[in-house]
């Protein structure tokens, strides 16, 4: 069961499952707790996982005033406070990875380790152009389904589009009762285009694993590599056949990889487990994923 927790005047929707070392999951653009369903289901036997709706998404309102990544990082810290969590393994994807970076820089004692999926230091011209296209699409699309059909071309692999996975996700998003307004989407996007992690990344002390999809057209591997290069001791991996959200398309593989990383940190080494021959074979095998049953974006 989920519940709202308070951060100042803001009521943040959170859900918590499982038992074990604490994990905080941070979603991306417009994403809610449901985007992490495969992790909430697949890792709860080993970890206590907390997920939340970002401000302006799902069941968390968008407060008045400027929307900044720093404020959203403080929201994440407030979620930890509300649940009595001193520190947690933090995982974020896309915009959530940027929030995770800022959380680790602003509140280093709260971050046990950091997993950054589909991330960047600062948007390059290509990513900014893609962002302008999405901003245009939000207003130009005649309805939500049409927006999602076009937006998800940049998010999921051709495999997921062709096997019906994306169609199922779109149906779930359209049926989701807690809609994000177009205005809130614009404000959320603007916060990320304005954010530059160049100065904060070198200050991150948490063990960090950076993951990139080899065919992600947005948070491309070179952007993820720049993040890993900027964070002392960070490990960087490219999953060659995956796109922006492998934690949904190949959740069993993603869960196993990040759990191995967390286990290394818990054991005290702070070093991600090395990739194995099986990992490389999986990259080249174009695995048939389980179909996600969660909303995303």
Task: From the structure above, extract its key features.
297 residues; Rossmann fold; 12 helices; single chain; eight-stranded mixed sheet; alpha/beta; 8 strands; disordered C terminus
Descriptive account of the structure:
Helix content is 42%, strand content 16%. It is of the alpha/beta class and 297 residues long. The chain has one domain (2-284): Alpha/Beta hydrolase fold, catalytic domain (Rossmann fold), CATH 3.40.50.1820. An eight-stranded mixed β-sheet has the order 1-2-4-3-5-6-7-8, sandwiched between helices. Strand 3 (22-26), helix 1 (37-42) and strand 4 (48-52) form a beta-alpha-beta unit. The longest helix has 17 residues, at 251-267. The chain is globular and about 50 Å long. The chain starts with a strand and ends in a 13-residue tail after the last helix.
In short:
Residues 265-297 are annotated as: Disordered. With 297 residues, the chain is an alpha/beta fold.
Give the proportion of residues in helices.
40-55%
Our count of domains comes out at: 1
The CATH architecture category equals 3-Layer(aba) Sandwich
The fraction of residues assigned to DSSP E strands is 15-25%
Number of helices: 12
Report the top-level CATH class.
Alpha Beta
User: What is the CATH fold-level name?
Assistant: Rossmann fold
Organism: Geodermatophilus sabuli
GO molecular function, one term: triacylglycerol lipase activity
InterPro entries: AB_hydrolase, AB_hydrolase_1, AB_hydrolase_fold
Biased composition (Basic and acidic residues): 277-297
């Amino acid at each position: 069961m989920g519940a709202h927790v308070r951060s100042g005047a803001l009521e943040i929707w959170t859900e918590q499952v499982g038992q074990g070392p604490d994990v905080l999951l941070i979603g991306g653009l417009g994403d809610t707790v449901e985007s992490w369903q495969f992790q909430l289901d697949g890792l709860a036997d080993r970890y206590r996982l907390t997920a939340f709706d970002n401000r302006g998404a799902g069941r968390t309102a968008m407060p008045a005033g400027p929307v900044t990544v720093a404020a959203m990082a403080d929201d994440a810290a407030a979620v930890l406070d509300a649940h009595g969590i001193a520190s947690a393994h933090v995982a974020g994807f896309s915009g959530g990875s940027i929030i995770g970076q800022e959380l680790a820089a602003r509140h280093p004692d709260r971050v046990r380790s950091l997993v950054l999926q589909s991330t960047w230091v600062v948007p390059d011209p290509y990513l900014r152009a893609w962002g302008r296209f999405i901003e245009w699409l939000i207003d130009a699309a005649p309805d939500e389904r049409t927006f999602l059909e076009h937006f998800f071309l940049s998010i999921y692999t051709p495999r997921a589009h062709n096997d019906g996975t994306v169609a199922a996700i779109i149906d779930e998003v359209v049926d989701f009762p807690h809609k994000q307004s177009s205005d809130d989407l614009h404000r959320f996007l603007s916060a990320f285009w304005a954010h530059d992690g160049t100065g904060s990344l070198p200050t991150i002390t948490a063990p960090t694993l950076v993951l990139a999809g080899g065919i992600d057209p947005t948070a491309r591997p070179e952007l993820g590599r720049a993040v890993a290069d900027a964070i002392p001791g960070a490990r960087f991996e490219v999953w060659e056949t995956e796109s922006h959200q492998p934690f949904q398309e190949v959740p069993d593989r993603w869960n196993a990889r990040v759990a191995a990383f967390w286990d290394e940190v818990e054991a005290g080494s702070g070093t991600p487990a090395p990739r194995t021959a099986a990992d490389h074979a999986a990259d080249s095998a174009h695995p048939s994923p389980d179909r996600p049953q969660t909303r995303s974006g």
